[in-house]
Amino acid sequence: MSSLRLICTPLGQSARSEFYQELKAMEQGRGVIVLPNRLLQEEAVRNGVECIGIDSLASKILNKNGYVSFNQINRRSQELIVEDLLATLVEQGALPYFAALSDKEGFIKAMTSLVGQLSRSGANQEEINAIFNTWGRDGQAGEKDKEVNLLYQFYRSYLQTKNWFDLEGKYRLAIKVLQKDKVQIPWQKIYFCDFYSFDGLQKEFITALGKRVALTVGLCYEKEAVDERAKLFAAARDTYNDLLLHGFVEETKPKVDANAFPCAKMQLDLGRDCQRVAATEAVQLYSFSSREKEVRWVLTQVKDLLRQGVSSKDILVSVRDLNMYNGIHATADEYGIPLSLPKTGKLSVQPVTELALLLLQAKADTHDGAEAYFKLLTCELGKLLFAADGEQADALRQEYFFKTRSNAQEKVHELMEDDLLARCDQFIENLPWSAVLSVYGQQLQDFVEQLQLEKHLGALYKEGRLPLTAVAGAIKAKQSLLDCIKALVEDYRRCGKEDLSVTLSQWQELLRDAVAQAELTLQHGRQDGVTVAEVTSVAGLQFAYVFLLGVREGEFPKANNENWIYSDRERKELKEQGPLTLDLPSTAQSYAEDAYFFGATVAAARKQLVLTFFKDDEAGASPYIALVQRLFADGEIENNPAKEDASPAEASKNSKLGDVAWLEQSCGHATLAAAMADKDRLQNEKLSGILEDDALQQDVRKFVGSGFNATGLEVYAQCPFRYLGEKVWKQSAFQAAEDVMDPRDEGTLLHNVLATFIGRHLQEKLTKYPLATLQDELSQDFAAASAALEEKGVQNLAIWQVEGPRLLQLLQRWLAFEYEDQGEWQGYTPMAVEWDFSSKNGKPLPLKLTDGSRVTLNGRIDRVDSDGQHVFVTDYKRSASAAPDKSAMEQHLDLQLPVYMLAAAQMAKPQLPVGGTYFVLKDSARKSSFVLSDVNNPGIPCKEEKDWDACKLAWEKMLRDYIEGIYQGKFAVEPQKCDAYCALKDICRYNVLPKVKEEGDGANE
Exposed, middle or buried: residue 983 (CB in 10 Å: 0-12, 13-18, 19+)? Predict the structure, then answer.
């Protein structure tokens, strides 16, 4: 058997399965299969065989032979090199033909593309030089040939001098290595499969490889095909002929039987002149009036198949260009269809990129700069990050015409203050009008890091204001932007331009171009999802159901223009002149490739093939539609077929949400049954967490005991069902990490320091001491408290030591506030700290229930201030999110201040409580206060006097009602405040029910 095998398979078939079996029969590590795309490579991995891409194969061979860290350059570096060479040659007067074009937009990219095409043609540097020299064209055409050749020779020589390698250079190096006597190759047998063609350089690489190991190539090709059928294989013809020319021995696999499966005729007869047959359900053609209708109809059919039990792996949704169908993922999400397609996005349109570019634009002290400054506040990310009122800023923008950005800044800061906006102002101020590229890059990187997106967006997620997917996407975009900036600067450094000074305008253009070329994966596709892929990736795969969208004029086949520097006619001449030839891509080759993609995609269908397109005044059906219609006597196109509603959003438009039959058919019996259970639960207390059994109630009373605290009762006040889960069922809630250390440990440290410091200064004013003395004292207390916790072996101690300066600074800010506040607070001094009212201390707060039984309330008050007649309680909170606002007390959701004031009234007799406050340490400010009368502090105003006895009675009744509700087993799912981290969130279904209620149209009737 020859060591060079060429396995030719008919349309719609592949030798891949046969190759898998041969590989599995080998000893591990002896063989590998080379595949052209991710879908096929993932399939190979699932089959337990080693696989690789062809570019990676060249790298592996180089690595194996000592080329571990050769300097490979990317496309941007290539463009920089070409740009420099062009500038040098133009300056020397060596490019009269291209001199006028050298600084035109797009010319550098076009010339770099042509250089790459020349390199991949299979001709080496010397051969390309000979080809251009012997072409013999006169006049302007001859001058163009001479200058293209000159630039190419300079380009390749430049890389050789630097010892740099572009992708083509890497292949050349691998070929050179393969020609050595003692070359090492990782495998003994290598299989190539499902490539439709190889370019000239790849064929040279494969030929060199075939002299060292056993090679087998699987190619979809029918050599006897004629007429339209032959066009399906035109893209593979040169590869087929060249492989035979280089010693590959052909083996041909038989075609499938005409009755093997419903869509077999597509494989057998597509493009042939054959007898037409009656159309069946196996092949269907549809047209639509818009792309959106096309997508929605197709995905509705996919959802129906899934509902019928068809496996997602048996369904393919394919298009020529996914960029034309970027709404597929959103519609699939709406319909509840899992997709294998990752969610991707252009970096250029990500919110963090928008904010970065606006910052650069805002440097100009002009009207345009002012517009960019206002957009900072109202852009998508700005609305989330800035505390400033974006709507108010936008109103400013509409009310006034700002000639300069500085005037806009001044007006904005008159109305609002914002720390982040101040940092933006500083960034704009420090932004130079010209600088070395690395300076611009580092400055922007530093600012993006200072945004602390993880912290700020994470806080918004915890508050329920932002979904987790949005947070993850924004953080990925941030990292992608940082990587993009680093890569841009590094490319210029690699090309010797690290000292290049650019203007701010040039920096903006470079950054825009860089982010425009970057794409990031926002969310990975699901392994159990329906396959969605471009036609370029599905050759050799098979599916029971294939939906091919966008079979439309100008879209598929896709009109790809060749590189404009050489026309198709010139490329034809280069390919046909002898004895040396150049094979450059052409428009004809592009159309041949699309014909192959179409044939391979429709031949992938086994049970059903559905072709769709939309038509408007600009375009209608692709000629490929007619190619399919030629097979069937009645292959009619159905226009705008009706579809069932596939989502509640669609159903609401058609008032179907009250239709039980539709709901069961659309959502499935299990989903409907769950919805009906939710409906029943809303109407029947027994099904909604109400324990009516007396024995159960007694068990609950015995289990929870007679001692309560404000925190536990707040859980009940916010959600009775959550209290059942946490306090009765003992399901621990998931606590999201805040900042960079354990919040509980940080809170313990802060409270300990404050208790020590304030406890030393009871019944006296701090203002009697110099502030500097107090600051030193507080620092010593902090050091002692930190050491005490270290001895106890607290967690995250290493991080604590890093965070220590931040926490000490926080406490010093508190001291500055306290010092000023005590100076203004007439008559009051600290009376007690960590005032314990609990059973352990023998001083719990008693409460009598309506049945005459007694319970106790327990707790610890952080701080109590007194003027000798009244007491004022303070509860310290680490962050604002932990401190209730004023409305929480009005809604009976804040129980700490009421319980603390009741306890203070008992413990401080005959002094009466006059109020309480929540002090946020991170903000060094009181967040919310409750006062009954004037407390002689301008920072704690009393807007309306309240009667203590009335408050006492109301609070005691509130607490009594909550405790009796617990004893009576009232644990209904009626949250007044839903916690995103509740341990029961997956079973209470509260997040489902409100959505059902809001739909309306009889959904709950």
Answer: middle
